[in-house]
Amino acid sequence: MLGKCENIGHAVKSVVTGFWVTFSVFSVCVRGQEGNGCGQTLLGTESGTLASQNYPRTYSSNIWCKWRICVPEGQTLQLLFGDFDIESSPGCSNGSMVITDKNGENRLGPVCGKLKAAQKNVTINTNEVTVTFKSGQHRSGRGFLLSYATDQHPGLISCLQRGSHFSSQILSVYCPAGCKNVTEDVWGNSEEGYRDTSVLCKSAVHAGAISDILGGRITVSRGRSLTSYEPTFANGILSQMGSLSEKKLLFIRECNNILPVFGLNASSFWDKNSQRQRMFSSSRNVDSNHEFLLWTADLNDRRPWVEMELSERSTIMGIITTGSRDHYLESYVLLFRQDRKTWKLYKDALSKEKKVFQAYSDGHLRVLNSLFPPVVARFIRLQPLSWHGTASAQVQVLGCPVAKATPRSRPPEGFPSIKVNGGTPLPSPSPPSTDGPVLVETKLNSSQPVIVAVVLGLIMCGSCLLARFWWKRRKKESQIKHSLPTSCQSFTSKTLPCPHSELISYPLERNVHDALPASPLNDFVTSGFSLNCLLPL
Fold it and tell me: Model-level pTM?
């Protein structure tokens, strides 16, 4: 009985463990939104941004939206209103905002009208809140723009704050995710600097200092202004041409150098004179400082690609492509590898699908695409998806060498010869959608429920197998323990007969005419046990 109780205890413990893991998996907070009055929204794990419909223009009447925001357990939320303008009315009947915690208790609101500067920064001692916005019949009001971050990221600023709002020579602040699509302008570029009236966080995304879907801390220095600021297209943002300003802004970044390119391989090359494939010398395709390569595919190459070998294994932070007036890339995908083995396709950090990089916009031929997250590789391959004329680009790779414990041997003197690979390249992915990036994270990836179900199934199966194993083991030990009673071990001078219910042991040899022996009497029926064997004298 004691053994059975122990077995049951082990089984119950295993099942309880399985249910605890199941509860832990499904108790994870899911961020999202619902309603017909939602505007620009990006809800990240550490930070995010949300806005009312049509912001900064007037929102529609009789609409509503509800956002659920949560950050990791044990951390608290910082909320910062970049703008708040909901038409004021008695009892906020024309529109209002309410913020509640995960227990349903009001932390702010209902509130309408305009907020004072001191009211725009709100700290809530919980990791989860629900923001509800609704409107009635109204005539005015821009709505609101709200950003958030955890208490692990002090110095949170709004997407609308400009460099001119600060006077420090060196500035370190935290930008929330989701500032890329604010309507405010950016002037300048990452190499020469930005006009100080540019909005900081959008400029940081343009420069590649942070990722829009993650946000992050930026460090900015203020310097002497430029006479004019040239427009550029970078990371999906087109900056504007700007005039002289009081100061310029430069983002301080590590690991953002131009990496030397020491080898080139491509699906084909084009000689504009003979219009045939041929081998080019290294000096004609790589500049004297090894900082970029020039490549143009053959006119008949419908699946072009170009591969670059760096001097050493490096952390790659970005790619700059520059086309000509007649030949340029429009979009491409990126593959990388650390050695000469399998290529890996670069994927989007949020969707986990292939990342399609835009290489042209409205006449701008020089385009920066930053990598978030960065990759460590020595070989990279650009595989164009669409192009104008023929696939052609001047390519620069940004990053820094990976630190190593032992020095790596230098490449041989001179440039390696350029190799033309006429084999079948990797299958060309389908052309990308021209729509902008999806900013709203409202549900889990479609593959995640399947993964969760598989993991839970394995956990439950393991629990059942463990319980069964313990049950069989304890049962076997119990049978061995009780198969030979201790009271039987004292009989050594006579043969003990088996109970009447058991088979009788016969002599090894007997005559066919011998009669079967009569069943002996059981002298031990009162002892409470039976023997299944004979003990020899």
Answer: 0.69
